[in-house]
Amino acid sequence: xxxxxxxxxxxxxxxxxxxxxxxxxxxxxxxxxxxxxxxxxxxxxxxxxxxxxxxxxxxxxxxxxxxxxxxxxxxxxxxxxxxxxxxxxxxxxxxxxxxxxxxxxxxxxxxxxxxxxxxxxxxxxxxxxxxxxxxxxxxxxxxxxxxxxxxxxxxxxxxxxxxxxxxxxxxxxxxxxxxxxxxxxxxxxxxxxxxxxxxxxxxxxxxxxxxxxxxxxxxxxxxxxxxxxxxxxx
Length: 234
Ligand code: ADP
Ligand code: MG
Fold this sequence. Notes:
By secondary structure, the chain is α/β, with parallel strands linked by helices. The protein has helices at about 45-50, 75-85, 100-110, 115-130, 145-155, 175-190, 200-205, and strands at about 1-15, 15-30, 35, 60-65, 65-70, 85-90, 160-165, 195, 210-215, 215-225. The strands form 2 sheets. It has a 6-stranded mixed beta sheet with strand order 6-7-8-3-9-10, sandwiched between helices. Strands 2-1-4-5 form a 4-stranded antiparallel beta sheet, covered by helices on one side.
């Protein structure tokens, strides 16, 4: 469960101030599926970064699964992020000198998981994401869609409760984008909470809840109606 109360965030660039988050309130149940849409510069990435514990609000509170994240120090935040949050970026953010398998494996290595267990878990993810044949390829030997699938693999290897995707299909053609969307939705159907920032209204409409942001504020949030695209019973 995510609970955001009266969150504000201002960036200062020289003399100018940008109110990137303007009194944001949000409550998200475990397993929900939300899209975040809005013009460029409206605060979508700032919102996701805040939810992903990559950035801190100036004021307000953010509770994640019963933990008041505002009271945590940097180490505790890093730990919570590692255990609870998966993040997928538009430009993949893979490590170029590591293979697909090694990129997915990295969070397990950093968490001290034994090699045998790592091997089994990464193998299962490679299979699930259709990447078994690509396991030993470097990122620059993969298509955009494959790179994003590797990034998704890395984001879920620690079994997070929340998956945050910031324009995950923004660099992909329609077909690869659809594959990535299908994978994200499959993960959501498995119980993970999914938030997707997108410019693509066809993708945004698929979510169960639609959030619209303008100038740092959430201007509308509504729940999809049956027939809107996503199975109503899901
Ligand atoms: P979006 O993802 O909707 O395009 P962002 O959340 O990236 O918007 O940015 C919201 C506003 O905050 C923009 O005006 C952007 O320029 C500003 N901003 C975001 N991050 C920073 C930063 N690290 N330093 C200064 N300004 C920033
Ligand atoms: Mg953005």
